[in-house]
Structures are given as C-alpha cells and as structure tokens.
Amino acid sequence: MIYLDHSATTAVDPRVVEAMLPYWTGTYGNPSSIYGLGRRAGAALEDARRRIAAILSCQPAEIVFTSCGTESDNLAMRGVLLASAAKGKRHIITAPAEHHAVLHTAADLAEQLDGDVTYVPVDRHGIVDPASIAAAIRPDTALISIMLANNEVGVIQPVAEIGAIARARGVPFHTDAVQAGGHLPLDVDALNVDLLALSAHKFYGPKGVGLLYVRRGVRLLPVQTGGGQERGRRSGTENVPYIVGMARALEIAHAARESETRRLTALRDRLIDGLTAAIPGITLTGHPAQRLPGHASFLVAGAEAEGMLIALDLAGVAASSGSACATGAPTPSHVLTAMGYGPQEAMGALRLTLGRENTEADVDYVVAKLPEIVARLRGDK
Fold first, then answer.
1. By C-alpha distance, which of 272, 255, 222 is closest to 81?
2. How far, in Å, CA of 350 to CA of 152, rounded?
3. Whole-angstrom Cα distance, residue 345 to residue 25?
4. How far apart are CA 7 and CA 351, in angstroms?
5. How does pLDDT run across 155-183, given as a tens digit for each residue?
6. ∠ CA 112-115-118 to the nearest 5 degrees?
7. Is 325 an annotated catalytic residue?
8. Which of 247, 248, 369, 379 has the fewest CB atoms found within 10 Å of its own CB?
9. How far apart (Å, rounded) are the C-alpha atoms in residues 270 and 368?
10. Which among 204, 223, 255 is the end of a domain?
11. What's the confidence (pLDDT) of residue 332?
C-alpha cells in the first residue's frame, strides 16, 4: 500500500513505541500518588512536559495535556469564553474554513452564552486577511481563533501577523496547530499566540493524546472538573505512556523538520506538477507555495471523490477527499465552499498528503495511475 493520507493520521514511530513501553507494565503508577511507583510516573510526566515546552519555547507550566486536538480546541475556546462571559465578553472571531472542532464549538458557545460569532472570509486560496481580523474586533471580543495550517487544502495562515493584531488589541488568540505539528516552527512567542492545540497522532505519535498551550495570565476556566490534575485546568488521571510518546514523537519530528521539509516539498511539487500536466480539468486548491510541505489537494472536474478514492484503493493507494472527520458526509466541503467553489466542483475534491515513508517511486506510481482512473470515471475510455 502507498499511504497518502498523512493529514488524517500517521503510523506510530517504532522509537515512540519503545519510549512508551515501560509506562504500561513497569512504571505504571498513578502520577498523582506519593509512593515511589507513582512518583516515578509523575517524574516521567513532568519530564515530557519540559521537553515539549522546550520545543514550543514556553514554560512547562503552560502545557496542559488532553486527549486530542479536538479536546484542546474545546478547552481553549470554552475555557476562555466561560471566563470572559461574566465580564460581558461573548464575541468570537474565526473563519469559515476552520476545523469543525472550532466551528461547532464557536456556534455552541454563542448559543449557550447568548454570544456572537464573526466569520471573517477567506480568499480563493483559503487565506485569511489579517486586516479583516482587525476590522472585526469589538469591545466585547473575547477570543480570536484562526488555524495555523488547514487540514483540507494545506494552506498556512498568517498567524504571527494576526497574533500581533490580537495582542495590540488585548484579545486572546487561539490557533489550532494540529496539522502544523512536526511540519512548521511552533515557537509560541514568534507566532504571537496565547493558546495552541496539538495532537500527537499527526506527527507519528499515538492516537488519544494531545496538548493545549495556555500562555501565563490567560484566564481559562476548566470544562472538565474532578481531581484537579493539570493545575486544575483539566481533571482526569494523565495518560503517562501516551504523553511520553507524544514528547518523543515531537522531538523526533522537530529534529528532522528542516531536512524533511525539503524532501517532502520536492515530492509534493513532483506530484502536483505530474498530475496537473497529465489530467485535463484538474485544479490545485489552496495556495501554490504557502502550504504544508507534504500537502497536495485538487479538484478534478468530471470525477467524483468517492469513485476516485475507491479506484485508488483498489490500485493500492490510500487517499482522501478532505477531512477524515467528515468522511462519508454527503455535503460538499465547507472549506472549499468558503473558498468560493460551487457544490458540484467541490464533489471532485482529492487530498494526497505525503509522509516519511513516501518516495519518488510512490509519487510516480500515482501520477501514472490517477489519470487512467479519472479517464475511466469520465467515460473517456
């Protein structure tokens, strides 16, 4: 199988598995316990927190461990809005091409707290204009949430510029960086973010663990209460093996990021150039250069996504039509709709995302096979 769906998930790196093993059967204590077994688990937890904080250029105490990126987004948005609602601030600014973890949460909060959401537009490439963010800020704005990189079309947003605007206006700024983890720099000061969400399974770590960076001084009420773990911000016994695995996975990805970016960018461009030359009526979606290194997304006129994906699967290629969270949805992608594409156009969406194991031979195979598949679906032969 040629796996080209790394934006959906990644295989767990064997080095990550090795790092996790001792915390299932040996050092398995509850990290909140005071006896030796618990203290050793707690030490591993805090060591992972320090190692992650070093990559994000933040303080360890600013890292909150969660179960996934969706929970991290929810904690950021709900936590900030719950804290600000008492002061009359219930306005959220976001964009219509965000992940549903942000969009659904924003809509839910507006309904529950009698608040309001402003959706700033994206352009044809899917990029937010920072000036639109500045114009949307109001005295009652409680939070701005713009993703670092889009999961469906791979476009990278001008987050640092938006963050500078938010900071100058005194508005907390959250970014869903789930797709950027392992691919882009995550220095929270350089990005000008107050809250940042990551999920380990996007960078060769285990599923079921994520984190939220919360800048010191940002008021955040917990949305999950109980034993008061994570300094009272997210109760529940921490998943020590997975957290250790996430730290190791992020370290591995961070160490190889520059060289892997060069390699993936070359493969991505080879794939884009090959397919656009071989398939009439294919359109690259997202920005041609301002995109994740391994991310290629297209609209294929006259061929529906389902047919292409089934045929690719039969040919030994795993791909997707967009967000894995929306697989099987009968409606066109909200991301493509926000970018101005019509419903019929959006039904031909195809996403091919490269990763560590992919080679030039993989790319060349897809460039050879996909034109045949599209021609068959169009009835050309």
1. 222
2. 9
3. 52
4. 9
5. 999 999 999 999 999 999 999 999 999 99
6. 125
7. yes
8. 379
9. 12
10. 255
11. 87
Could you give the CA distance from residue 79 to residue 59 in angstroms, rounded to a whole number?
A: 20
Q: Could you tell me if 147 and 29 lie in one domain? A: yes
Q: Are 152 and 322 in contact (CB under 8 A)?
A: yes
> Which range of residues forms the domain containing residue 365?
2-8+257-378
Q: How far apart are CA 189 and CA 113, in angstroms?
A: 31
Q: Structure tokens of 306? A: 């389902």
Element (H, E) at 210: strand 210-214
What SS3 string covers 41-85?
Answer: HHHHHHHHHHHHHHHHCCCHHHEEEECCHHHHHHHHHHHHHHHHH
User: Which member of 190, 266, 324, 325 is catalytic?
Assistant: 325
What percent of the chain is predicted at pLDDT more than 70?
A: 98
Q: Count of domains in the chain?
A: 2
What per-residue confidence (pLDDT) applies to 329?
54
> Which residue's entry shows tokens 């350089």?
190
Rg of the chain (C-alpha set):
21
285 and 232 share a domain? Answer: no
- CATH number assigned to the domain comprising residue 345: 3.90.1150.10
